[in-house]
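Sanity check

After download, print the first record. It should look like this:
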Amino acid sequence: MIHLASTIRLRCLAATTCNGISLSWSDNVHSEGQGRRGPDMAMPPLCACPAGVIPPPESPFEVHMRASWGSGTTQVNCLPLPDFTDLPLEKYLTPETILPLYPSRGCYWGKCAFCSVHELNPVFLERDADQVAQDMIALNKRFGAHHFYMSCDVLSPRSMLSLAKTLSEKAPGLKWQSEARFEKALTVDSIRQLADGGCDLLRFGLESGSESVLRDMRKGTDLETVRTILGACKENNIRTAVYCIVGFPTESEKDLGRTVEFLKDMRSAIDYVGFHQFILNSGSEVSLRPSDFGVEPAGSLNQVTSEKNYRATRGMSPSVLKGVFERVKNEIGELICTEIPVGPAPVVTCISQVETCGRKGATARHLMKRPIPELDVSIGDVLCVDGLTGDITVERKQ
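Expected structure tokens:
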């Protein structure tokens, strides 16, 4: 049996300014004290199959996973139901059990200039939506899970709508979240259908609030479509997370300013935002055609991360980029939560907010869902939860 170490630390994060929008459930969670497995105890990843625990997608084992999926939907649909029997699900730091599923591999779009996912998954494969729904129903009966995280690069609108339809008819109590693209196929009506079918969080790659940068990135979408989808999600109580890339080779500081203004303008419809600094990935279009994007590769390839160093002849240089990245993240972090959760619900939830940064007064729940009193916490404070007694103390931000 695995025991929690004596103390869990949860950093109170920034939140949005929209009527009680929830905080992400944790920042850097680590243990202190001496648990059964020592001070550096780590929980196993929540990805398992009958053969054992599968490392996260970033590991070399993903190469084996790709091979095991075969080259067509027949092999995909023959994969067995994931088995989480040997995992101490009650010990994971989420308010309720959430289980991962692998409904797809690769990306059906596959054209983004910065991306190299096609190097690992050259063929887009999707498990039939009806089969995914049956997986969720079976896992719910076996492990009591009502929340599911689609651990994949993207689900197509067709699959999401089919999944939602099946769940609304056969298992209306199950909830799920997934990666998705801003597609015109996601109409206002289709978003409503997703909500009716249990979707409670969609994660999108916005990347930029500049139309010209989106074109350079080959994103295949536009900001008007983004606005429509985010607004429809808000109206139907589907939480949204958007990812942004700072420092794409053709992005100027003026372009980045457009991204900041777009996020500010849409903050009432965005629950979480994640920022990532541009990386020159081996196999991406930018890497293969660097001169088209104002990039000069410099140095050798990092064999561990598949990243390349580069010099920018357009846009922002890597030396300028670091400072700009932190400034933008901090500026937006005052308005929108910049930590994107995986769990079904946050541990800390804002109950009183104003349009400025003076957010105080929050209600926290113990990890095991035992109620605790209100805490006078500020953004950046750390909640210390004693894993044995459930007592909570607050370490104030310096």
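If your output differs, re-run the checksum step. Summary of this record's structure: Confidence is low (pLDDT under 50) at residues 1-73, 343-373.
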